[in-house]
Fold this sequence. Notes:
The complex is a heterodimer. Chain A contains no helices and eleven strands.
Amino acid sequence: QVQLQESGPGLVKPSETLSLTCSVSGGSMNSHYWSWIRQPPGKGLEWIGYVFYSGSTTYSPSLRSRFTISVDTSKKQFSLMLSSVTAADTAVYFCASLATADMSFDHWGQGILVTVSS
Amino acid sequence: DIVMTQSPDSLAVSLGERATINCKSSQNVLSTSNNKNYLAWYQQKPGQPPKLLIYWTSIRESGVPDRFSGSGSGTDFTLTISSLQAEDVAVYYCQQYDNTPPRYTFGQGTKLEIK
């Protein structure tokens, strides 16, 4: 059973870079696509992108320019970086495993609330 | 962009009664390569991450009670809870996958409450 846990700062200043890490346990890094999804307070879910164990990435066409997702298989972690943050980036950020066959997000981390504020 | 529209936005159902949530895609989610509809349903309770309920339109994830069922094809899909239990109070989301380019789009959510 895959388990995921996000870590990172809960507060980031405008124009700075947000960096989050997701630690994977209970599964193999080549079993899924490793994804990031965010949810602004009181709103719906927005897929950001994913990374495969090989390091190949795919991003949401509408979001890709400021996001970078990477993987470290030796540590069983994958990461999200978001540059030039604004208040609009305030959200709960979830890491999730994406099943490669049916393209559903079958395991999720608890989520981490990131607030962008000076 | 693909738009997933759920209806209704909120729903109140009596315990033991049927709850039905609809999801309409602006584009066909049927894959011509394997004839599968890439449509999933999630349940999110307050303060928790979403939980996968159903994938490929109608396949229940392991451990999901059989009162949850999914149906549909093409652009129109339905999640049905046959006999509402108190623990089913949550927000429900549909999600589609499109491969040109790869993207994953969620509906806006339907809030389900007890009447």
